[in-house]
Amino acid sequence: MKKGRAIADGLVILPENGSQKRQMRLYFFYRFVLSLGLLISFFTGLGPGYMGGDNPELHSLALVVYLILTLTSLLLSLLNIGSARVEYLFALTVDSLVIATLIHTSGGPGSGLGILLGISIAFAGQGLSGSTAMLAAAIATLVLFVEDRIAVDTGVRTQTAYFSVALLGLSYFALAFLSLELANRARTSEKLVKQQGRDITSLTELNEQVIQQMHTGVVILDSRQRIKMLNDAAWGFLGRPVSAIGHPLREIHPHLANALDTWLLQPTVQQRHIHTQAEGNDLLVTFQQLGDPDHSGLLIFIDDASLAA
Predict the structure, then answer these.
(1) Which of 73, 125, 173, 238 has the smallest number of CB atoms closer than 10 Å to its CB?
(2) In the structure, what pLDDT confidence band is assigned to residue 2 with cuts at 50, 70 and 90?
(3) Spatial separation of the C-alpha atoms in residues 57 and 200, rounded to whole Å
(4) Confidence of residue 62 (pLDDT cuts 50, 70, 90)
């Protein structure tokens, strides 16, 4: 039982994120618009004259059934009802049978309707695995060969169109392959972006842990000299303020803010001594610009001057 489930899961790749779900819904919306357009063009006479010319009753029945099924698939997709693998495979099966019927009633492969099946295969290939997409292309080609044989045997057409069907079949396989290649590249890029995001998050957390364990105080200011981050050592050097993040440095430690203003006028002097009478210790501070001086922040290192000596 588990083995069978594993094989089934390997056949179809389910949508894993919002973009893939939107892509599947776009496919179902396209099918609904297509079925509605074909139905309107046939019953209003706006379409080509050969559409349904060989069997108008069967043609109209196929269009009505197609509209109902595509609308049902679209609604189920929007409501997140049902399995994605079932929706994809059901849609391809319906498209193969209905479009083959429309081809049968409209003069054969020369009607140009076969390209509609190729579009469905290309769309569905984005959500299917390689083996399933190629199988769908093979089934679509086989259905067209069967339709062509039936049309000749029943006298609907006088000669076969195997060459045209073969060309359509080749185009189906090519579309399935290209669609799968694009889908695989998109999934690979998505996985890479997610992995890079996780790596950046892990590296950020690691850096924060390292900074917090440092005996040197570290303060990061934004371009408006507001405190963005400080470690425990800096919190102690600044007098253990109740709240520091987001506040201007001058509100938290005026002496350090004055030293910063002096450094901004003479940035060549990296280290400065600050005597804080309230805390009763001398601080050795080092300032460093982060990136562009006009738009970036500042990095401040704080040490106990007595220990540094």
Answers:
(1) 173
(2) very low
(3) 63
(4) very high
